[in-house]
């Protein structure tokens, strides 16, 4: 595996690959890698001949300076983890100067999908996501990009962006990877104290109970209310909890075959998200 930190070195590398007829898969990340990220890499098996993992903590998608400052980082550990897989050709880890040159003034905005759920309480977040993903897709010249369903709103937004901008890349969605107790894997989990980690399991537990109640005929409003109260009693501050269409992200009913339950909730200053399909 080769570590590349500049746009020019990456361009030289992928130009050679394309010249040789290789197909390229990319896994964009913000680092602090875990098993969930490795699952994204493995999902590219048999689909590409070259794989790139990007690590870049993107400053323009954070609307909270402390959240950006405290976001877990560890490039050496990330590189060692990827090296062990034997499946990654390049770790691309640019710094901010490589991504945003002086005077950078462009943003990519996906209207509608950026203003609901996480977008409602994180203004500008998805503009930052769309902008950096566009840049990474162009820089890596990937044929396929793998994204996890844990960040389902992000997945929908990126699909829309790629379609609207005619970007020559396919999106590979990968199911959420969970701990044995059900908690969705996330780099933010590393910031949880032992006590908070015990509390955190209430998040997937409450979602599963809510889905079961809906399937048994409970109304959406009533079951969401019970779920929200359970999370609050477990120590969470609930930012949103909603049933949405998995195709449009608009509010929907339990009878919708694409329906998914979406939640964002915080323990202290650590914001966790999750989603689960009803079907």
TrEMBL record:
<dbReference type="InterPro" id="IPR003721">
    <property type="entry name" value="Pantoate_ligase"/>
</dbReference>
<dbReference type="GO" id="GO:0004592">
    <property type="term" value="F:pantoate-beta-alanine ligase activity"/>
</dbReference>
<comment type="pathway">
    <text>Cofactor biosynthesis; (R)-pantothenate biosynthesis; (R)-pantothenate from (R)-pantoate and beta-alanine: step 1/1.</text>
</comment>
<comment type="function">
    <text>Catalyzes the condensation of pantoate with beta-alanine in an ATP-dependent reaction via a pantoyl-adenylate intermediate.</text>
</comment>
<feature type="binding site">
    <location>
        <position position="61"/>
    </location>
    <ligand>
        <name>beta-alanine</name>
    </ligand>
</feature>
<feature type="binding site">
    <location>
        <begin position="148"/>
        <end position="151"/>
    </location>
    <ligand>
        <name>ATP</name>
    </ligand>
</feature>
<comment type="similarity">
    <text>Belongs to the pantothenate synthetase family.</text>
</comment>
<feature type="active site" description="Proton donor">
    <location>
        <position position="37"/>
    </location>
</feature>
<keyword id="KW-0436">Ligase</keyword>
<dbReference type="GO" id="GO:0015940">
    <property type="term" value="P:pantothenate biosynthetic process"/>
</dbReference>
<dbReference type="GO" id="GO:0005829">
    <property type="term" value="C:cytosol"/>
</dbReference>
<dbReference type="Pfam" id="PF02569">
    <property type="entry name" value="Pantoate_ligase"/>
</dbReference>
<feature type="binding site">
    <location>
        <position position="61"/>
    </location>
    <ligand>
        <name>(R)-pantoate</name>
    </ligand>
</feature>
<protein>
    <recommendedName>
        <fullName>Pantothenate synthetase</fullName>
        <ecNumber>6.3.2.1</ecNumber>
    </recommendedName>
</protein>
<dbReference type="GO" id="GO:0005524">
    <property type="term" value="F:ATP binding"/>
</dbReference>
<comment type="subunit">
    <text>Homodimer.</text>
</comment>
<keyword id="KW-0963">Cytoplasm</keyword>
<keyword id="KW-0566">Pantothenate biosynthesis</keyword>
<feature type="binding site">
    <location>
        <begin position="185"/>
        <end position="188"/>
    </location>
    <ligand>
        <name>ATP</name>
    </ligand>
</feature>
<feature type="binding site">
    <location>
        <position position="154"/>
    </location>
    <ligand>
        <name>(R)-pantoate</name>
    </ligand>
</feature>
<dbReference type="InterPro" id="IPR014729">
    <property type="entry name" value="Rossmann-like_a/b/a_fold"/>
</dbReference>
<feature type="binding site">
    <location>
        <position position="177"/>
    </location>
    <ligand>
        <name>ATP</name>
    </ligand>
</feature>
<keyword id="KW-0547">Nucleotide-binding</keyword>
<dbReference type="InterPro" id="IPR042176">
    <property type="entry name" value="Pantoate_ligase_C"/>
</dbReference>
<keyword id="KW-0067">ATP-binding</keyword>
<feature type="binding site">
    <location>
        <begin position="30"/>
        <end position="37"/>
    </location>
    <ligand>
        <name>ATP</name>
    </ligand>
</feature>
């Amino acid at each position: 595996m080769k570590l590349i930190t500049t746009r020019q070195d990456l361009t030289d590398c992928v130009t050679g690959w394309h010249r040789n007829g290789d197909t390229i898969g990319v896994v964009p990340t913000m680092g602090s890698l875990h098993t969930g990220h490795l699952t994204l890499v493995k999902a590219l098996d048999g689909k590409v001949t070259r794989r790139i993992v990007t690590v870049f903590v993107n400053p323009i998608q954070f609307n909270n300076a402390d959240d950006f400052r405290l976001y877990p980082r560890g490039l050496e550990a990330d590189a060692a983890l990827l090296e062990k897989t034997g499946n990654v050709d390049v770790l691309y880890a640019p710094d901010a100067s490589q991504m945003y040159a002086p005077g950078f003034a462009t943003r990519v905005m996906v209207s509608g999908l950026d203003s609901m759920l996480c977008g409602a309480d994180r203004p500008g977040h998805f503009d930052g996501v769309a902008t950096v993903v566009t840049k990474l897709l162009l820089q890596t010249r990937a044929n396929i990009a793998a994204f996890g369903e844990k960040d389902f709103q992000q997945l929908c937004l990126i699909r829309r962006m790629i379609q609207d901008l005619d970007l020559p890349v396919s999106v590979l969605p990968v199911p959420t990877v969970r701990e044995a107790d059900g908690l969705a894997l996330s780099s933010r989990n590393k910031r949880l104290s032992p006590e908070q980690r015990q509390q955190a399991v209430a998040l997937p537990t409450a979602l599963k109970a809510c889905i079961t109640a809906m399937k048994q005929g409970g109304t959406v409003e009533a079951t969401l209310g019970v779920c929200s109260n359970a999370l609050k009693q477990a120590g969470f501050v609930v930012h949103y909890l909603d049933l949405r269409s998995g195709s449009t992200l608009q509010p929907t009913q339990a009878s919708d075959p694409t329906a998914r339950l979406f939640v964002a909730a915080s323990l202290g200053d650590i914001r966790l998200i999750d989603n689960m399909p009803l079907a």
